[in-house]
Fold this protein.
Amino acid sequence: MVGCTSKVDDAQHSSAPDVGTNMTNTSEIVKHIPPFNMTSHDGISYSSQGLMGTSYVLYFSAQWCSHCHPTLTALDNVIHSNRLIIIGKDARPEYENMSQWKSDTEETLNRTFDRPFCLGPEVAEANGVTGIPFFRMVNETGVVVYEHMGLFTDEDEISRQWNLTWFGPPSDNS
């Protein structure tokens, strides 16, 4: 299985778990990030409208997902500190406290996360998240450039995809 799932779906299984979907290199219709508005563990609001003009990553997980930690660690090592938003997709009452989730994650991984932790099951649903970990790289115009579900620890590939999201594909000026 590629990631923890809310329901079983054959599309979630892959023989290459570190391969994501680069939205810019396919013939798919351009996907814009669905509108969202969330408040982080420290009371700061994040919205799709407020993030227009900047590139960012939405990382979906759950408080109980210990196998999601390697992906979060890899993203944390690569993505600029103010560009990664960590979103809890489990709205059960015992998992609503984002400050506790942040603290528990920091203790478990023995590192500090200077990242917003937001409760966003409705954001996860709007983004079609059925398995975790799942992340989307979004460019400054709100277009999803890259997405991945499942374990992903290749920091070089994350960096490459992030640079494509941040700067766009290389231009052909020949």
Remarks:
- The two ends are 44 Å apart (CA to CA).
- Residues 155-167 form the longest helix (13 residues).
